[in-house]
Design goal:
Elements (H helix, E strand, L loop, with lengths): L1 H21 L12 H139 L2 H19 L1
Helix pairs in contact: 1-2
């Protein structure tokens, strides 16, 4: 009760001089009819003062509690967002590191595949070279064999042709004297062989 009285006194001390300063016509009732607008202005200020007093007196604590709770809620939400941001930044950093690692791994893997490919190519070239040497040797042997067979066939044909030619020409060119001479030589050879 004592506080209420002090507050009313404070309002009168504050609003009284304000009223005199802004609306001096309110206290002078003898003046003209334009006092109503001044009275309305005074009542507006008075109602505003009462409303401000009530809000300050009775609404200060709930309003402050509401503002504090809003501040706490916002602080908590900001803290959660900061934690989430830190978590996301950590995830982004992990992802970047994973990309760097995968790039390095990819480069290493690429180099390894290239090395293996070169080794495989060298192995294939070596095997092809060995195989071509073997094939060349086999081809040389086959060619050599064919040449030998061809030479034998040629000699055989040559001998046959010579024999045929001799068999054809000899009877025409041989005389009785040549026959006698051949028989004598044969006999001499045969007798010499027996001795």
């Amino acid at each position: 009760m004592k506080k209420v009285k002090q507050t009313v006194r404070l309002a009168l001390y504050v609003f009284g001089p304000l009223l005199l300063f802004f609306c001096p016509e309110v206290f002078a009732g003898e003046e003209g009819a334009d006092w109503r607008s001044k009275y309305d202005l005074f009542m507006l200020w008075l109602n505003f003062g009462i409303l401000a007093f009530i809000i300050v007196r009775f609404g200060k604590k709930p309003l402050m509690n509401f503002l504090h709770s809003q501040r706490d809620d916002l602080a908590e939400e900001i803290g959660n967002l900061e934690k989430e941001k830190e978590h996301m930044v950590a995830e982004i950093n992990k992802t970047r590191q994973a990309v760097k690692d995968s790039d390095a791994h990819f480069a290493e893997l690429k180099e390894k595949i290239i090395r293996q490919g070169e080794q495989k190519r060298e192995e294939i070239v070596r095997q092809a070279s060995e195989q071509s040497e073997i094939m060349m040797e086999i081809a040389k042997q086959k060619i050599g064999n064919r040449i030998l067979v061809a030479k034998r066939e040629f000699k055989a044909e040559l001998v046959d042709t010579a024999f045929d030619m001799a068999a054809e020409r000899l009877p025409k060119e041989m005389t009785d004297a040549d026959n006698d001479k051949l028989v004598r030589q044969y006999m001499e050879t045969a007798s010499a062989a027996q001795v």
